[in-house]
Structure formats: structure tokens, C-alpha cells
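EI: anyone free to look at a 159-residue chain?
SC: sure, send it
EI:
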Amino acid sequence: MENLRPTFLTVLCVLTFLGSAFGIYSAITNYTAAGMATGITQDALEEAKDQMDEAAKDEKSAELVGKIMDSVSADISEDKIKNNAIASGIANLLTLVGAILMWGLDKKGFYLYVLGVIVAVVAPLMIYDGFLGFIGSGMIAFMGIIFSVLYFLNVKHMR
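SC: here you go
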């Protein structure tokens, strides 16, 4: 008797197909637009920093905001954006292939998916030295852990 894919696993896979495809598209877009984005982002950060300095209620608040903004500004360079885009593309490719395998009820897909999540979480921490890497990794880890747990609950249906 052939194994039937549970509806919940089907939904998870479809969501991963869509999310990973969008992630690959975003990685390509970020890589190709890295130079232009760096200049625009630096200008926007300077303007935001000036506005936050004006809005700060005391000197300590202004100093803290300044440190965070300086950290983010230092992290934004064309090379870092390109490196992150490459890592993101690889991570999304791994999660996509993992979901395709899990669609066919192949347990190896789960491990590929988890590897993709690990790459997606670790890469920003390694590429961006400060605040930006921590925030980026935290958001990715949150969704990655949820989906990994949900996929793990379906491993029993895979061969």
C-alpha cells in the first residue's frame, strides 16, 4: 500500500515552495541591486539618525540610538549585502529541495530543510558583525524553528 501524504504536510510543503521561491527571487534581486541599495540605505540611515537624535528625551537615549544606528550603518556594504544574498539563495534552495523531497515523503528532505534553516540563521551572524546580523538571524530562526518542528511532527509519515 502506498503512503498517502497528510494534508498538513501538503500545506507545509506548499507554504515552503512559495516562501523559498520568494526567498530565491529576493536573493537574486538583493545581489543585483546591492550597490544601489547601499547608497540609498546609508542616506536613509543618516536621516533617521538625525530624526531620532532630535526626538531623544535625554543624552543616554540619544547615545544608545547613535550606537545602534552606527552599528547598522557599518554593517551595510555592497560586499556584505551580496554575501548575504548568496547565503540566502543557498539556504532557500536547500529548503525548497527539502520540501520537494518531503512532498514525495522522502525523509532526507527533512534533514535538507533543517540544514537550509541553519544556513539561513548562521549566515547573517557571520556576515553582519553587529545588531543587523542578530536581528536578521532572530527573525529567520523564529520561523525556521516553527516550520522545522511542524515538519518533524510529520517525519513519521516519510520513508
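EI: Helices lie at 7-32, 34-55, 59-75, 78-103, 108-127, 131-152.
SC: 👍
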